[in-house]
Amino acid sequence: MLRIAMCDDETEAREALYLLLDQELHEESEQIVYEFSTGTAAANWLQKHPGEIDLLFLDVEMDGMNGMETAKKIRTFDQNLLIVFVTGFADYVFDGYSVGAMDYLMKPVCKEKLQALLTRVREKLGQEEAEEFIVKNTDGTYRFLKKEIRWFYSDKRKVMLVTDRGEYGFYAKLDEVEKQLKDGGEAGQFVRIHQRYLVNTKWVDQIGSASVQIGGEELPISRAYKEAAVKKLAEAMLGGMR
Questions:
Q1: Would residue 136 count as lying in a domain?
Q2: End-to-end alpha-carbon separation of the chain, Å?
Q3: Same-domain check for residues 67 and 179
Q4: pTM, two decimal places
Q5: Which of 48, 51, 136, 222 could disulfide-link 194, Cβ–Cβ 3.0 to 4.6 Å?
Q6: pLDDT digits over 13-71, tens only?
């Protein structure tokens, strides 16, 4: 799946890019999800919806917060979003490296260059898919890299996913999440320490006799899981998985 957003303060420019993209996207699995007319609106929305967009086409020359400023704001809370600058001036091209832009397209956008870009995007997302964990709830769809997840914990009928950006809840059982991670080849990275807690070994700072510490938070280790959990956590920490 490829979810795309565009940000350009010129309606005609957005419409032109939309029409080009519409011809190139795979109908069942790829879509243009959002359009923004200001950098401020794009950055604010993206901050509230982490992982919901894979690719952002961002105009450089915008009134108010320009494209480069918008990209810098986005990078303060999201290092994974693919950003492609759209510009009428080649002078801005090299500035894109400072914000980790994937590429740039010159206006008017060339169909062949857009096709080549989309091929690269699909290849990159395909490689990263196994490293992602997807959360779906009433607020939308969120994608997280497994390495950025600190821990999961159960809360009644929900499971809460914890990252440095906050907590995100979804309806599931922790056993189901653990199995999903195991099936995805991440069994060694996540360790069950309690009926309610599943932790990412890469974020564990300290192992105690009855708890582990992650970023200043203390999570309990239950008797039922202690022997296996402590062994796996110690192996992970000594093995340099951090």
A1: no
A2: 30
A3: no
A4: 0.66
A5: 222
A6: 999 999 999 999 988 889 999 999 999 999 999 998 888 899 999 999 999 999 999 99
